[in-house]
Records
---
Amino acid sequence: MKTLEELQAIRERMKAKVNNRGVADASDFRIVVGMATCGIAAGARNTLAALTAEVEEKHLDNVIVSQTGCIGICRFEPVVEVFEPGKEKVTYVHVDAERARQIVASHIMNGNPINEYTYSYAVKEN
Amino acid sequence: MLERAHILVCGGTGCTSGNSKKIYDEFTKLLKENNLDKEVKLIMTGCFGLCARGPIVVVYPDGAFYQHVKVEDVQEIVLEHILKGRIVERLLSKEREADGSVKPFNETPFYKSQHRLVLRNCGVINPENIDEYLAYDGYLAYQKVVTEMTPQEVIDVIKASGLRGRGGGGFPTGMKWQFAHNSVADQKYVVCNADEGDPGAFMDRSLLEGDPHSVIEAMMIAGYAIGATKGYIYVRAEYPIAVNRLQIAIQQALDYGILGSNAMGLGHEFNIELRLGAGAFVCGEETALLNSAEGKRGEPRQRPPFPAVKGLFGKPTLINNVETYGNITAIILNGAEWFTQLGTEKSKGTKVFALGGKITNTGLVEIPMGMTLRTIIEEIGGGIPNGKKFKAAQTGGPSGGCIPASLIDTPIDYDNLIAIGSMMGSGGLIVMDEDTCMVDIAKFFLEFTVDESCGKCTPCRIGNKRLYEMLDKITQGKGTMEDLDKMEKLCYYIKENSLCGLGQTAPNPVLSTLRYFRDEYVAHVRDKKCPAGVCKALVSYEIIADKCVGCGLCKRGCPVNAITGEIRQPHVIDPDKCIKCGACIAACRKNAIKK
Ligand SMILES: Cc1cc2nc3c(=O)[nH]c(=O)nc-3n(C[C@H](O)[C@H](O)[C@H](O)COP(=O)(O)O)c2cc1C
Ligand code: SF4
């Protein structure tokens, strides 16, 4: 026997889980992880796992985590792109699990992209 | 943890017969082998509707809609799409945007013009997991009615919504609930009619397979509204997947205390039992269904008394169709006004149709009431295959009628369909092209009703048999013009004097074809010709000597050796031997054989 509160808890937990099931809305953030051979070899699987865990934990239901193939900058893998509605896409490089968590906290939740992790920054510095 | 991708494999009956269970198992195996089983969620869902292109697999969040998937394709989907994020283009639909990119599937003509209200969870949730139903606001409507509304307020909302029964008759649902509510008795029942006997119809089955909890929740709400503690779902045993998912759903609801003596802890009792029918069309008629559910012969009873007064085991009973129940939770949660915005003045909401016959996208579609037949056939249905011409559409199954091409712009709702001599029925929609003989169609449906008549009353048992014999005579080329008039009279006699809806509607296919295609009947009777070339007794096959090159292909294809001829000489068909099977026409490359 489940109480009304328990049923509501299941609803909320499951809502977060089925959130990824739907074609992305125009108003959604999309985080895309490069998952070609190069990305996976560089540890993109861990990045992806960290991103999905963060999104679930923080109840970010306007965020879709997705994956894509090689975008051609293999030496910078794992590469993560963040698409925010109405803004230029931001490409992050060398995103390990720790960076992934920082990106979610700073960029997605607070609207501050982390310049030091971006592709343009990395290219300029090298 | 949150799964990053969801793979939805269609587990509806259509895709299951296309081996989707094996596809599911292959995914299970390969996801495990590639260590993806923890980060990717695999589920078996209900029907996506596009049965013509099954088995269907959808991968979210990309929304990749894979069609005609084979077990061998699973490896490519896992290794390319799931592992590397590269969508397997060759398995996608061929419908493209102007720039050549693949259209998102909800933008394709098949889905775009639909309005999925009743089917909202079909192909989205895993029907065997109550938690997923809960995620989509499951059992919130029941909680709302019990905690915030009186039974009369619930009935008032259903009345105000304008919802009408989807089982065929189109009776206002709120009024029916009111009658059952007003009856005073120590015990009342809520019954769900899931018999669905129309040939070619599978709306109710798909809803039960894809979203069983929504029907269970609606029955609980009905129980609260009319004061019943017990529900029965009468479902045909020929629907094993639906039966199985219902059993699972009922058990899960019991385990959670959602069903039971204190449903959801809110102080009301509700329990549901299944009753399996053996698959007789007449058992879909409500009084016959009640008899059958009681374990008696499935024969209709006299009405009145109506079930709302004296139904199952002699107690007041509310009986509604599966799809009718499928509307209830959405109406409760969104309000009557929201519902009335969809549809026409007297037919609110949507209707699910099983689209079949000569149409490209056979499958399950849900449209707002008032959409024209043209939109359904040309846009959603993708038109008639092989460049053939649309001739007529049949709605309402054996109780309905044919809509001719001239009425293709009629907005579909209850009253318009009745006005043009057909009916909504439960939602079978069979499309016919120029190769269909309307006399033959009428005969087909009548053969069905003659077979399915329970035999209790004479007009139906004998009248329909005679009617069938007259039709048969006409297709043999032995009919007379008087027969046509006699037939029409007999039709009205049967309609007026039969006991139940089966007999009362059985002549409809004959009447409507007589009304719109009388010339075709006349051609059979007077000219001894079947214009569509279907009725075997009235067609003869002939080889046009000028066109025949004497290749001998037809001769080799003929199963009864009716064709003779020397090589490179025109061949001939012996009409006495010919069984009119059409094999020669299929074999001939020169179009030299005419009917
Ligand atoms: C011969 C015959 C067959 C019927 N078959 C069905 C059926 O398969 N499913 C159904 O819901 N209603 C069927 N009906 C209609 C039922 O008698 C009844 O009107 C319906 O279940 C009421 O539910 P509703 O008001 O929700 O439509 C049939 C009626 C007749 C006369
Ligand atoms: S109308 Fe036909 S099916 Fe209905 S009771 Fe009479 S014989 Fe039986």
Note: Chain A has one domain: 4-125.
---
Amino acid sequence: MKDLSVKLHSLELRNPVMTASGTFGYGWEYEDFVDLSKLGGIVVKATTGSHREGNPYPRMAETPHGMLNAIGLQNKGVDYFIKAIYPAISDFPTNVIVNVSGSTVEEYESVAEKINELEKIPAIELNISCPNVKEGGMAFGTSCASAQAVTRAVRKVYKKTLIVKLSPNVTSIVEIAKGVEDEGADSISLINTLLGMAIDVEKRKPVLSTITGGLSGPAIKPVALRMVWQVSQEVKIPVIGIGGISNASDAISFLLAGASAIQVGTANFIDPSVTMKIVAGIEDYLERHRIDSVKDLVGALDVS
Amino acid sequence: MKKFIHDFKVIKKWLPGSNHVILHLLCSEPLPPIKAGQFAEILIPDEPEVFLRRPISIHDVDTKNNTISLFVKIVGKGTYKLSELRVDDTLNLLYPLGQGFEFPEHDKILLVGGGCGVAPLLFLAHSLSQHNYHPDILIGSRNADEIHETGEYEKYGNLYLITEDGSLGEKGLVTHHSIFKTDEFKYKIVYACGPEGMLKAVNQKLKGFDTEVFVSLENTMACGIGACLSCVVKTTTGNRCVCTEGPVFNTKELAGW
Ligand SMILES: Cc1cc2nc3c(=O)[nH]c(=O)nc-3n(C[C@H](O)[C@H](O)[C@H](O)COP(=O)(O)OP(=O)(O)OC[C@H]3O[C@@H](n4cnc5c(N)ncnc54)[C@H](O)[C@@H]3O)c2cc1C
Ligand SMILES: Cc1cc2nc3c(=O)[nH]c(=O)nc-3n(C[C@H](O)[C@H](O)[C@H](O)COP(=O)(O)O)c2cc1C
Ligand code: FES
């Protein structure tokens, strides 16, 4: 038996494979295809201070090897989450992590404070990187000062593992990563979607109702990998790699680049059972390379 | 309903007219229960230009032979690829998705299909007739070349046709058919599938009648299982997913209809 377990600060994962927020619903959508007890964790949909309807349809456009989305944080708000959703997911046999979003520092703070009270939620992921809302969201993740301000405020009220999810739509991701590390983030996840756009030339109109949206899928993998590499060189806290991961080899490349764990997003749409194949593939890789622990792969890229 | 990912083998392919393909597919496993109006998310094989699965309605089910059929209008890269499949090729389906049609209390049922929107109607007519309903079926199209399988529909109900150029049945748009003209429109339930403009026109036509109109929507989708929230439609109770809460909706619930 190979040791697949990893640790993100005080959060223990049975293996490094998690699912990315907004692509895995609340987990139950995948129950016919995924054995949750075989996942390191799931990050559920973005939760905000109050109910949000999200953006108008159309919210999705297919692109070469990827897709654009402009969902706009549709969710019923944190109070509804606590009352109606938490009871249904709190006994899932895996780490359930809540993705926290907002438009103001106060909103992030108040959602985090409420989630802090939920015994079975061991961590939150601060989404300061959503490109699809008018105010807040990505605005916090694109300046170091505001990324730090949100992290600082949430750190004061949130006692468990605090993951901060970074936006790739910045000039220096390393600077922001170091900034949130300084404010007490326990881990950093990256990347969220890249700002993009699609046009229907026949209609001479944008495909998305919001004109621009967030690009995800294999198309963004090289960018994500580069950013994970750069960030993990510069921070001491564990990094979670996200972006286009669709198979075990993709996942392992992120581990080698320095990620302690990975999240699978868009690939779940093409194969809802893909995470199970990734876990099995990582185990197989360890067997083939006679490596005992997946931890030995983290940052093991040979650049000589 | 439990969902599955199964491989199917193409056992028969038929290209009626220039822009449609009908595929008969044999399942590699025993078929699960499928309801009329449900759909599959199809992995388009060997087409690097197509990234996401494509939602296609279940056109008919033959439980005895463990086969299903699909009726596809060729509109782009993915559907073109489906038309290029050959007998014995394999196709991967995530299915059965969505809620499908509910069987009504009344037997005064009219099924209305326009263009490629007829896809789910054959299975609906088939299922209704298995449950001893006697639906009337109205199919509209641009011209005679786009109306197929009339003999199949006739097995399950009275078939009425209308074409824009008058080459088959009455002449005009679906809503011009004489079925809608009578002072005493007799149907209590209408199930309609087709382009959104046609669905809205049918619904508009029946406002003021004591008739419930159910429509099957075709919003673009990514996951098909309620996880991504791409496919939402605005309803009287907020945004709802077409893939899990639809694709069939009572038009009373749709905002702005
Ligand atoms: C629940 C559901 C059931 C469906 N059932 C059937 C069916 O039984 N038979 C069938 O032929 N089609 C059906 N469709 C529509 C079908 O999914 C699309 O035509 C298909 O995805 C187009 O793929 P493509 O790669 O060929 O086109 P693309 O190359 O992706 O696009 C070509 C053109 O078609 C347009 N288009 C693509 N998808 C849609 C869509 N969903 N609605 C409107 N315009 C679109 C694009 O904007 C573009 O202009 C269904 C859709 C849904 C959501
Ligand atoms: C439809 C969709 C919805 C998303 N919603 C969220 C969200 O609510 N919060 C968030 O932090 N990231 C969200 N993301 C971003 C993903 O979690 C992930 O960071 C991104 O898609 C890159 O990974 P991928 O290429 O594996 O999908 C969403 C992505 C998609 C495709
Ligand atoms: S297509 Fe993903 S929620 Fe409907």
Note: Residues A 20-23, 45-46, 69, 71, 73, 99, 127, 130, 165, 192-193, 216-217, 220, 242-245, 264-267; B 228 surround flavin mononucleotide (ligand 2) (CB under 6 Å).
